[in-house]
Amino acid sequence: MKICIDCDPGVDDSLAILFALARPDVEVVGISTSVGNVTAKQGADNALRILKLAGMEHKIPVCVGAEQPLNGDEVDFPEFIHGKNGIGNVELAPSDQKPVDMDVCDFLYQIASENEGELVLVTLGRMTNIAKTIKRYPDFAGKIKKVVSMGGTVLATGNVSPVVEANIGGDPEAADIVVQTPWDMTMVGLDVTLKTILRKEDLEYAEKYCREECKEQIHFLREEMKWYMQGARQQNWMRECCPLHDPLAMIVAVDPSVVKTHRCVTRIECEGAYCKGMVVTDLREYPIDGEYVNHCMEVDSKKVLDTLFAAFY
Ligand code: BDR
Ligand code: CA
């Protein structure tokens, strides 16, 4: 399976990327970054460091994308969750590779054209780069096999407001363009990610029993997750564990059987003091005009964790 990852690494983005790289049936063909957990530039630097850790830095191109959401709003970086550098303040060895010198829309379009009909687009951050590419290249969407996005919440609470999840709330206008695009799209939101919990001990166990070549990667994940789990604790959720947001989206991309989905016409609310960024799902018999999106509503969390770690054993 060929996957292009649009992300904002990001502690949980790192785990999603390393999981994809560790799967023998996945070929990551490109990584683009947008502002979110850190700047797009820092995110690309992190992506290159993560690729180096997996010995893939010379094989996968990384492109710096949007540094601002479509509406130009200031970005408030969630340092208490991802650390100042986005990877839990862990010092990961730098790569000698540089990001490609390309506009992100051209980059995504080129990858989609080279892998027409077989490319799975996995988005783990704000959807700014994707929305811009859809606008610039009207035939972009038709080249993509399916889109799997970490973002949103249907029935669960939000994580940046009572009803809004961070990736959608960070650029609602972009997300609304993406859900209005006629393609096969699945949203992996807080309804399922908050039910999929990674414990500190899971990583300790994995570091002990993973195959030799993955040891350093799991060690890095353990280190950066210390910060991330403190962040989860500050959000009054949990102790020495955390929800799996981005990794779950990546797992759904490779094995959709871990979730049950509900398909309905979807829009993103782009206004309002409390609801800006809310995912609006029309469950009525005669819904508003619009495109259908699959929303993950139930998850087999045990199977998710087994699938996640199986890639490293
Ligand atoms: C999402 O927001 C980011 O902080 C995470 O990396 C994840 O993509 C969770 O709401
Ligand atoms: Ca992310």
Task: Describe the secondary-structure layout.
Layout: E1 2-7, H1 11-22, E2 27-33, H2 40-53, E3 62-64, H3 79-82, H4 104-114, E4 119-123, H5 128-136, E5 144-150, H6 166-169, H7 172-179, E6 185-188, H8 190-193, E7 197-199, H9 200-209, H10 215-234, E8 241-243, H11 246-254, E9 259-268, E10 279-282, E11 292-299, H12 301-310
Parallel strand pairs: 1-2, 1-4, 2-3, 4-5, 5-6, 6-11
Antiparallel strand pairs: 7-8, 9-10, 9-11
The structure holds beta-D-ribofuranose and calcium ion.
Index terms:
alpha/beta; 37% helix; nine-stranded mixed sheet; binds beta-D-ribofuranose; Inosine-uridine Nucleoside N-ribohydrolase, Chain A; binds calcium ion; globular; single chain; 313 residues; two-stranded antiparallel ribbon
